[in-house]
Amino acid sequence: MKNPDGMMLWTGAFIADTMHLDTLEIGTYFLLLMTMWRNRGWLPDDDRKRATYARLTPATWQRSAPTIMAFFYDIEPGKLGQKRLAKEAERARESYAKRQKISEAAHKAKSLKNQKAALPYGTANGMPSKPLTLNSREDSIDQNPKRETAIADSGAAAGAPNGANAPRKSFSEYDYISSDEAVFFSAAEIDDMRDSHPGINDMRAAIRNADRTLAKQGEPAHRRKTTVLRWLLAVNEKGLERRRVVKTKEELKAETAERRAEKKRKHWGPAM
Q1: Which residues of the chain have pLDDT under 70?
Q2: Are 38 and 2 in contact (CB under 8 A)?
């Protein structure tokens, strides 16, 4: 595995170690370090190649080589290394390998989750637990009783065996019906909720907003009505809290006004 593209540079140590180098030598040294990083921590023991890596002519390299090569040591015949860079390269490779393993594990877990979500309802590991028949009501109940209850409560659900023939609800019976008929409330129910949720000004709008938000978030149809009711409880609490805060502010204003009036009465005396 090659080194990651990003090379760690400890600027304080680098400046301290290169105080005796001129500008050309610092550039040469830095180019050789970057070449070593990309070459897994070593340089070939060849002056012509090192001159090429440093973008220098052979003659210029020969003048700088004695000073520059003092930073390197022999790893093995034909290979040169640099102590600090070798440690940082090994550390970077280990960190990169750990992140790669974590990423692969997360990708595998997500892939398995997506595969399970794509399985037909009432199946295990992609195989039906018993033969499914579209015309058998008993089979659909045995396969998933919760699904059958949801259909009975909320009407036709997408992909349900008996949902296609279920009677559709109308606005003459209900004051609010979601597009998939999973959430529905009669006018009487909404009136009762207005009385029990004084913190909500527009109950029907609150129901609609909660239903649409939960539908976008992927809330299952057979659970969405229950979740909407919980949502409304939370909205009601926030509304009541806001009203308490507003009431407190109004009371403080009234008290402040009363104190100012009292001061004026004491200073100027009672009004004639």
Answers
A1: 1-5, 114-173, 247, 269-272
A2: yes
Residue 149 domain-assigned (yes or no): no
Check if the beta carbon of residue 71 is closer than 8 Å to that of residue 16. Answer: no
Question: Residue with structure tokens 């974590």?
Answer: 102
Cα dihedral 140, 143, 146, 147, rounded to 10, equals -50
Tell whether 2 and 95 lie within a shared domain: yes
Quote the pTM value. Answer: 0.36
In a domain, 222, yes or no: yes
The domain containing residue 217 runs over which residues?
175-263
The number of distinct structural domains making up the chain is 2
**Residue 140 maps to a domain:** no
Question: Same domain for 84 and 5?
Answer: yes
CA–CA gap between residue 82 and residue 33 (Å, rounded): 8
**Is 163 part of a structural domain of the chain?**
no
Write down how long the chain is.
272
- Helix or strand holding residue 127 (H, E): strand 127-128
What are the backbone angles phi and psi of residue 119, rounded to the nearest 5°? Answer: -70, 150
Tell me the CATH number at 110: 1.10.10
pLDDT tens-digit profile of 28-87? 999 998 888 888 788 888 889 999 999 999 999 999 899 998 888 888 888 888 888 877
Residue 201 and residue 239 in contact, taking contact as beta carbons nearer than 8 Å: yes
Instruction: Answer yes or no: are the C-beta atoms of 68 and 82 closer than 8 Å.
Output: no
